[in-house]
Request: fold
Amino acid sequence: MATEQWDVIVIGAGAAGIFCAIEAARRGRSVLLLDHGSKVGRKILVSGGGRCNFTNSGARAENYHSSNPHFCRSALSRYPPARFIEWVRSHGIAYHEKKLGQLFCDGSARELLDALLSDLEQSGAVLRTEVEVQEITGQRPFRIFTARGSLDCDRLVLATGGLSLPKLGATGLAYRIARQYGLPVVPTRPALVPLTLGGALKSFSESLAGVSCDVSLTANGSRFRENLLFTHRGLSGPAVLQISSCWQDGDPLEINWLPDLNPGEWLEQKIREDRRRTLESLLAEVLPRRLAQALCASFLGNPVPASLSDPQKRELLAALTAMVWKPAASEGYRTAEVTRGGVDTHALESKTMASREIPGLYFIGECVDVTGWLGGYNFQWAWASGWAAGQAV
Ligand code: FDA
Reply:
């Protein structure tokens, strides 16, 4: 079987790979987009509860974790959220802001994927699914061996995503190829993932499964103020998913149960209003009643705050605003929305996503060590990095 020749081969037909292939083909390149799955864009379809939180209107470099924090600035400024929003509008896809700049489709994420696939077809790029990549060798041309024959290309783009949700086709191919060509890979770990608890904390959480409240969580010097949800296994909800990206095994998690109050002033005010009230009754005004009861029963006792000495009040306020819990683990890649770490950006050109050392080799999307916060930032990175490489290949 003769080896096929292509200008550009993109491996991985997710958000980043599809966007890159469209841009490259529009520039007149012959482009082949490969995926090992029978369906493409599967994470787009499951994202945002089926409505795809496709970008965040305020996305900027500060919303991303990376060992090279400035790297994502170039791609995000060349292809900012406003340009993707314009793309969404131009395809007649209705959308709305849910909160904090998070933009969702009004209807189904399928509309967005269909629009991408329609652009892909019009661009002239060729999509092939169910192609298993066995081996990649050489450099300009790169030779890709598959069960269906070998393919040569001048430029090779890896867009195979991270390790999260293996059931949707995640593999570590991009990391393997990066290492094969001598590029460093920042160690990976699950991110935007629920945390599990052990022992008494697990029982505490189990007894409150389904209860949620606004908190601020701190780990490793990072803080997020959002909603926390108790589950049968531990903690979830946006605050926990956000902080999980900063948390590592063994780290303590600091919980502020009163993130919107000046707790000292609040307590003194409540004491002035009624000196007889118990802590539980005061907390039940600002927290779900079951949580107030459980916190008092397990951690705080149920004192009458008016009867506490100043040092005891300080101790109580510290427990309410900086309670330290040690999660047992994260739920892992099985439920993680993204993978932190990945191809080290110090080895890539920020304008083009090209390897600095291996001409013609590119890495885009989630396989790169750029991990967004929860709220549309990860898709914005996929579009922006895919677009940047699409202009260069
Ligand atoms: P992506 O993982 O999307 O695509 C990679 C592609 O490569 C897949 O099609 C895969 O089959 C293919 N592939 C993998 N290995 C291969 C191999 N060896 N050979 C050939 N092909 C291979 N983000 C956000 O901004 N807003 C949101 O609402 C959500 N919601 C959300 C929900 C859930 C449940 C998850 C799991 C994730 C999210 N995300 C999100 C994150 C977002 O989905 C993610 O960051 C992007 O899909 C990453 O896009 P990529 O194109 O880089 O990888």
Q: What stands out?
A: The first strand starts at residue 4 and ends at 11. The chain has a mean pLDDT of 98. The two ends are 27 Å apart (CA to CA).
